[in-house]
Amino acid sequence: MFTVGRLARSCGLSRSTLLYYDTIGLLRPSGRSVSNYRTYTAMDAERLKQICTYREAGLPLKDIAELLDAADDKPVGILEKHLEALGGEIARYREQQRVVVKLLQSRTRFDAVRVMDKERWVALLKATGLDESDMLRWHAEFEQMAPEAHREFLASLGIQPEEIESIRARSRGDDPED
Fold first, then answer.
1. In which region does residue 130 sit, left (phi positive, over 0), alpha (psi from -120 to 50) or beta (all else)?
2. Rg (CA), the chain
3. pLDDT tens profile 38-60
4. pLDDT in tens, 98-133
């Protein structure tokens, strides 16, 4: 059996965090001591470790409660939705980064930020000896193995959606220009 303080310390949390989790029903103590202190079992400790893992992933407490209490495929849906939201946030941050770089209007500062954009990526591929057909094969493999990751990668380089779709179509071999 764990006391609230001992369980909290075991996961690097404060006692008040566990008390809050109890208040919202996320982690209820399994019992009470003779002195009416909260007591937790090894199963409660495991649940808290799961809560901590989901918190590290950035999930809100409401979603964590659903994940822990779900008996069906709902957890997969919640995690996929969160992953999609993270992808959107990353894209927004990258766009903000590009705007800040433009505002700086200084090539030296731009180099210090180390933003990977389309031009730098193509230059890197060419520097490694890839020609246009090699790059097309690279894109084709990426598109075949992980189409959504391929789309997200192209977007992370600051490529506009129309051009992304054109690159992906050529990668799949269904571009009429080829």
1. beta
2. 24
3. 999 999 999 999 999 999 999 99
4. 888 888 766 555 555 557 888 888 888 898 898 999
Q: Do 87 and 60 fall within a single domain?
A: no
Query: Alpha-carbon distance 42 to 24, whole Å?
Result: 20
Rounded distance between C-alpha atoms, residue 45 and residue 25, angstroms:
15
Q: Please state, in angstroms and rounded to a whole number, the distance separating the CA atoms of residues 147 and 151.
A: 6
Could you give the C-alpha distances from 61 to 13, 76, 143, in angstroms and in order? 15, 16, 35
Structure-block tokens of residue 4: 């609230």
Q: Give me the CATH number covering residue 61.
A: 1.10.1660.10
pTM for the full predicted model: 0.55
Q: Are residues 106 and 137 in the same domain?
A: yes
CA distance 65 to 25: 8
Q: Given CA atoms 7, 11, 15, 16 in this order, what sign does their dihedral have?
A: negative
Please, are residues 73 and 67 in contact by the beta-carbon 8 Å criterion?
A: no
Residues 36 and 118 in one domain: no
Give the containing element (helix H, strand E) for 68: helix 61-69
Question: Same domain for 113 and 53?
Answer: no
DSSP character for 129?
T
